[in-house]
Structures are given as C-alpha cells and as structure tokens.
Amino acid sequence: MSVPVVVVGAGVIGLTAALKLKQSNNLLDVTVVATFLFGDNDISYTSPYAGANWQSFASPNEKFLQEIDIEAYREFGNLADDPRSGIWRKKKHTLESAELLPGTVCGREFDGFVISVPAYLPYLVQRCLESGVIIKRVLKITNIEHARNVHNSGKKAQFVINCAGMFASKFAGVDDSSKNYVVRGQVLVVRNTISKIQIVCGFEHPDEELYVFPRKEGGAIIGGSFYKNNHDPVEDKALTQRILDRATTYLPELIDEKMHGNRSYIDVVKVNVGLRPFREDGPRIEKDPKKKWLIHGYGAGGGGYQGSYGFAKKIVELVNENISTPRL
Question: Which of 46-50, 139-143, 236-240, 323-327 has the least mean pLDDT?
Fold first, then answer.
C-alpha cells in the first residue's frame, strides 16, 4: 500500500527531498506542490537566483551543519561527471606567490563546486519526474493543514514535508515565525569568465564581499551582498557599480582579452536580486512536536544548494522511521 507524501516547496531543497524520498522507498507516493515552479520569476522564489556554489559556512564546532553540508559535497562530486548537471569542479592546490591576489600573503584552491542554476534546477526537476515524483502548481497555501489535502492522488497525505523556504514559518500551524528573517542578495550574471572561484572580503561595506563563480557553460556570477531584513526587489545600482569596480580591481583576468575570449570590460547579462531564507537557530530539520505527520526542512539561509542533500538525507530518515505506523 502506497504512502502519500506531500512536499511543500519546489526550490532546491524541496525538489532534492522529493527525489531522495522517492528513491529511498517505493512505497512513497510523492507529490511536490508549490505556488512557484522553475521558470517563474519572483523574488520570494529563491533558488533560481542563487550563485550557486559549495562552500560550507560551518565552524569547526558546528557538527550538525557539517553533517548537512558534507552530503552535497559527496553528491556533487558524482554529479559533476554528468554533463547535463551543470556542476563545475576545480581541484585544490596551494597558490604560488605569482598567483596571489594583490595584498594577500597566502592562498589555497580546493576541490570546490559551482552549480549553474539554469542547468541544474531543470536537471533536478527531470530526475524527480523520471523517478515518479509528481510536481504540481497550487494556489498559495496559508495553513499547513491544507497541504495534506493536495496530494495528486486525492488521498490525504500521511506526511507533509515543509520545505517552503521563506514561507515555511508563515503558515498557520507552524509556530516559528519569530526566528526567521531574509537576507537580500544581489549578483551579476556576466559573459566574462575566469579560471577559478575567487572570494575577497574586508571591504568598507561590512555586508558586502566580492566573489566570482565561473559557470560550466561559460560566463560567471559576480557578487555580492548580505543585507538582513531588506526585501527590496529592485536592483541597487550603486551596489552594482561597487561590485564591478571591485571585480576589475582584484580580478583583472575577467577583463583580460587574451584569456577565455573576454572583453576589456565586464559584459553584464542581467542583475539578479534574491532573498535568502535565514533562521536564527540555524536550519530546522525535525518532526513537528505537535503534528506527527509534519516534517520541517527549512532555514538554509545562503546554503540551500550546498545543504540540499543533507536536508534530504535527514528528511528521508524521519519519514522512513515512521512509515510502518505513521502517527496521524
């Protein structure tokens, strides 16, 4: 007998959780429901606007976050060999003095990953569909109880997985809204490319840094900013100019016409503005203490892609350990 499961949210965490749930147990009949799906443009739908890369934010003492992030590191290592995935990999080594940025004294490259979102998200959607996951658009859900009634089969869901990002704590029936906030990010999608991921910190604006992620198909993402509780969907043109100035100053390779066919200026395709869904106590991945059919998976902040497979692993464990006798 199949077990109806509804995943709320079609961002990278919701889709990854749905895929891994379906792969983990053939009994699970998984439906993803969301107001926004891949291809939609809305600042509150975060995943399409991400950079995105793997770079764990976990400190040496943050064991839980380390567990979350390491899963994607392993998974991306495998997926990088699939040309359809849009995942780019670079091996590590200690930089020679000639390779250092101006004003730096040491540096290391590591085996990191950049995820080309326009390739990876549809790739993830396709993997879900091929695995038997149903993805459907629904009207905005206001009460988490209502999510039990939107399974594609028409049956009442035995499990609801709350992966709705910045909306996850706003549902009636989810008592966590005071801990959640957004952090506004702004990045440039450019045609110029560069040979490696580079990050430079320590600028006069404490909520800004310079980072460049080359994409597998060419071009790069240049950022960025981290403005807490700023919901403005409009490009900050002064910030765009600061990003451009820093990029040309610290990363001259971007405008070196002898490398990669770059132009002598940064050729901007578009400016992306997105809201990262942060949570004060870090990610919430747990069974709801009051609703035994509800499992939460949100609060990834700026680490949605790098945490996606770790979120999914823990969600799968929570569902499967309760499958035989789900408490409704």
Answer: 323-327
44 is in an annotated binding site: no
What is the model's pTM?
0.89
| CA nearest to 208, candidates 221, 191, 222 | 222
pLDDT tens digits, 55-78: 888 888 999 999 999 999 999 999
Which H or E run contains 5? Answer: strand 3-8
* 275-314 core/surface letters (b: 16 or more CB in 10 A; e: else): bbbbbeebbbbebbeebebbbbbbbbbbbbbbbbbbbbbb
Q: Cα–Cα distance between 287 and 328 in angstroms, integer?
A: 12
Question: Does residue 302 have a known ligand-binding role?
Answer: yes
The bridge status of strand 220-225 relative to strand 208-214 is: antiparallel
Pick left, alpha or beta for residue 194 (phi over 0 → left; psi -120 to 50 → alpha; otherwise beta): beta
The three-state secondary structure class of 310 is helix
pLDDT grade for 111, boundaries at 50, 70 and 90:
low
- Coil, strand or helix: which one is 172? strand
Count how many residues are written for the chain.
328
303 is annotated as contributing to ligand binding: no
Whether the predicted pLDDT of 39 surpasses 60:
yes
Peptide bond into 224 cis (omega under 30): yes
Instruction: Note whether 246 and 239 are within 8 A (CB).
Output: no
Dihedrals phi, psi of 188, to nearest 5 degrees? -110, 130
- Write the DSSP assignment of 52-100 as a string of letters: -EE-----TT-HHHHHHHHHHHHHHHHHTTSTTS-EEEE--EEPPGGGS
> Does 85 appear as a known binding residue?
no
Q: What is the CA radius of gyration of the chain?
A: 20
Q: Measure Cα distances from 65 to 239, 310, 311 in Å.
A: 30, 9, 10
